[in-house]
């Protein structure tokens, strides 16, 4: 008997399954309210007068140019550094690979603004290295503006590029490289014609992710950008000045480079095939490694990157546990007690609570969306899928701007509430889980769920008792990712925080901007400690079901 298809039949099936109907309607309502509606409000808030103002003032045009230039430079160097670092780990015979993997992981525990803080402590006007150069060589180091921002964003987002690229390099089968070597390809030619081309998806995705983060970066440009103004900083200034219309214009313009990056990525990746899983046996084959001379260069490069990262963390820890490092090096716990464990400074606790709630909700929503999109036929599926992944293409600064503009006045007012912060965090992390779970659902045979349905199980019961246990590893991995990103987020929520609901990343930024570096460092250490502690508990609970500290 031929299966009936069509919109009418899909609707009939939904009404026969109340649980699925509730899930579909709830998903539509949430995404329309918190993704589509804010975008529409931002577009209508911008207004023609504000567009005219933006294009009539050279200051805003310069901020746009600066954003594109600095983000492109930082994304390029972070991607190059991430590729070289990952290549050294997977294609060389250098020692200390486990150590280098660990070093690439630890920056993910800290907010990107901590890089700006550490840079100020080392290379700012009163920084350790700046003072040493001035005292011993009478040389004044001035890295504020583009040079400093370029360095900081490169180091801040290098781990993101490395994590993206290392997964691709690890997955490349050695058989093609061995075949190319047997045909005469050696050294750089082998690397250029085989390895680099096969790794291209990872390289482009890394550039995309870093560029999006650089476009949205607010804390680092505000701390060390000096007179080198960027759009994210200008948007913040206009929101502070209650100029929501002008901020909306700049937010819309900020989205354009991000969308261009996505378009370029899709164009490049659609032109070639990068598959290395061919079905041919590869067990026993050893990957072709680099020469001893290249090993020495790669080891030196990874060591320099590691030294820079260690220095940033070390200087932050020293400021957190001394009275005023460089002037009074007496050990103290006063800073930690005052800004981490004091009831009057709940920033770290707020971050922990809001991040856990948001991560749980993000994974739950991603699971529901993936389930109904892959498993349930209903009208509007493409729209739902598009709305679910749209936030990942939007800079965090724009997401925060859209939410504050949409919900600062009627009909729904959420400004100043913890709920709006949770929603902002959720929107930025949910698409990642949705993509991963969608892929996982497609790998699970549908007949298992159909058997449960035939035995009388509702969609809710099937989801909780059949589907979730099978996808537990993916769910937990996405929860860990969402939690870590939420703990460190700044750009997405900078417009949404209030004195009652200030979070750790914002506190680090505020203390650093006012020059109280020891308090900023103490909050950074407290934030990393809370993140590590929570991840440790998750590891103890789920054990082998989730990999966190496996380097």
Automatic annotation (TrEMBL):
Coiled coil: none annotated. Pfam families: BPD_transp_1. PROSITE patterns: ABC_TM1. Residues 64-265, 348-536 form the ABC transmembrane type-1 domain. It is found in: Cell membrane; Membrane. The chain crosses the membrane at residues 21-44, 64-87, 99-123, 143-169, 190-212, 244-264, 296-321, 352-374, 386-406, 412-427, 493-512, 518-542. The keyword Transcription does not apply. It is a multi-pass membrane protein. Keywords: Membrane, Transmembrane, Transmembrane helix, Transport. SUPFAM superfamilies: MetI-like (SSF161098). Belongs to the binding-protein-dependent transport system permease family. This is ABC transmembrane type-1 domain-containing protein. It comes from Paenibacillus pseudetheri. The lineage of its organism: Bacteria, Bacillati, Bacillota, Bacilli, Bacillales.
């Amino acid at each position: 008997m031929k299966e009936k298809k069509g919109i009418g039949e899909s609707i009939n099936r939904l009404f026969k399954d109340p649980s699925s109907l509730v899930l579909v309607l709830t998903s539509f309502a949430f995404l329309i309210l918190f993704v589509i509606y804010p975008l529409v409000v931002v577009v209508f808030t911008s207004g023609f007068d504000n567009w005219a103002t933006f294009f009539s003032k050279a200051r805003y045009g310069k901020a746009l140019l600066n954003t594109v230039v600095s983000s492109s430079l930082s994304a390029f160097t972070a991607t190059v550094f991430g590729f070289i670092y990952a290549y050294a780990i997977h294609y060389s015979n250098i020692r200390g690979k486990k150590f280098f993997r660990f070093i690439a992981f630890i920056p993910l525990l800290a907010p990107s603004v901590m890089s700006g803080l550490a840079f100020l402590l080392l290379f700012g006007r009163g920084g350790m290295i700046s003072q040493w150069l001035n005292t011993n060589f009478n040389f004044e180091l001035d890295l504020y503006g583009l040079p400093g921002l370029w360095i900081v964003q490169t180091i801040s987002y290098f781990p993101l590029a490395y994590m993206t690229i290392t997964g691709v390099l690890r997955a490349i089968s050695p058989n093609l490289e061995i075949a190319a070597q047997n045909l005469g390809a050696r050294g750089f030619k082998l690397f250029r014609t085989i390895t680099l081309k096969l790794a291209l998806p990872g390289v482009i995705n890394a550039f995309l992710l870093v560029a999006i983060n650089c476009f949205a970066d607010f804390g680092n440009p505000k701390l060390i950008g000096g007179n080198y103004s960027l759009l994210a900083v200008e948007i913040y200034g206009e929101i502070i000045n209650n100029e929501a219309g002008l901020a909306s214009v700049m937010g819309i313009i900020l989205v354009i480079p991000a969308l261009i990056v996505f378009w370029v990525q899709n164009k490049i990746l659609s032109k070639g095939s990068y598959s290395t899983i061919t079905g041919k046996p590869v067990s026993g084959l050893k990957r072709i490694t680099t020469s001893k001379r290249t090993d020495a260069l790669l080891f030196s490069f990874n060591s320099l990157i590691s030294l820079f990262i260690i220095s940033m963390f070390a200087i932050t820890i020293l400021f957190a546990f001394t009275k005023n490092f460089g002037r009074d090096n007496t050990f103290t716990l006063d800073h930690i007690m005052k800004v981490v464990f004091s009831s009057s400074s709940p920033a770290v606790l707020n971050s922990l609570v809001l991040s856990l709630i948001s991560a749980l909700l993000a994974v739950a929503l991603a699971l529901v969306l993936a389930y109904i999109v892959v498993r349930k036929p209903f009208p509007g599926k493409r729209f739902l899928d598009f709305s679910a992944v749209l936030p990942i293409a939007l800079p965090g600064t724009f997401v925060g701007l859209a939410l504050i503009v949409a919900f600062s006045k009627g009909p729904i007012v959420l400004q100043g509430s913890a709920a709006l912060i949770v929603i902002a965090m959720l929107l930025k992390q949910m698409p990642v889980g949705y993509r991963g779970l969608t892929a996982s659902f497609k790998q699970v045979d549908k007949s298992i769920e159909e058997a449960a349905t035939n035995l009388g199980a509702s969609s809710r019961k099937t989801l909780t008792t059949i589907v979730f246990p099978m996808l537990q590893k993916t769910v937990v991995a996405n929860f860990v990712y969402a939690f870590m990103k939420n703990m460190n987020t700044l750009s997405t929520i900078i417009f949404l925080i209030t004195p009652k609901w200030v979070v750790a990343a914002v506190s680090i930024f505020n203390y650093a901007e006012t020059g109280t570096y020891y308090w900023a460092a103490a909050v950074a250490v407290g934030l990393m400690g809370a993140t590590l502690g929570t991840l440790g508990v998750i590891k103890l609970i789920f054990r082998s079901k989730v990999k966190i500290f496996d380097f």
